[in-house]
Amino acid sequence: MPALTLRPLAREENEEAHDGYEKQRPGLGAEFLAEATAILASVESTPRLYPIIRGDVRCALLCRFPYSILYVADPEASGPGLLLCEP
Questions:
Q1: Relative to the CA of 17, which of 33, 36, 67, 72 has its CA 20 to 30 Å away?
Q2: Cα separation of 7 and 73, whole Å?
C-alpha cells in the first residue's frame, strides 16, 4: 500500500481537534495526536484490519477520543486519502 496522506480537510480537522483538546487541558491535544498517529501507523501497516463501512471505505476508531479515520485500502491507489472525522 502506498504511503498514507491526509486530505486537506482531515489535516484541518486534526489541527482543530488538537487545539480544542489543548484548551480543555494542556497536554490533552498531544495525547490526541499520539493516538491518531498510532492508529494511522496501524492503518498503514495492516490496512485490511479495520472493517468496511460502505463500499470500499474502511473505518478505524480512536479509542480515547470521539474520532474515526476513514480510508480506502487500495494497493493500486497512488496515495489513498484519509479523512479524520467526528462521529
A1: 72
A2: 15
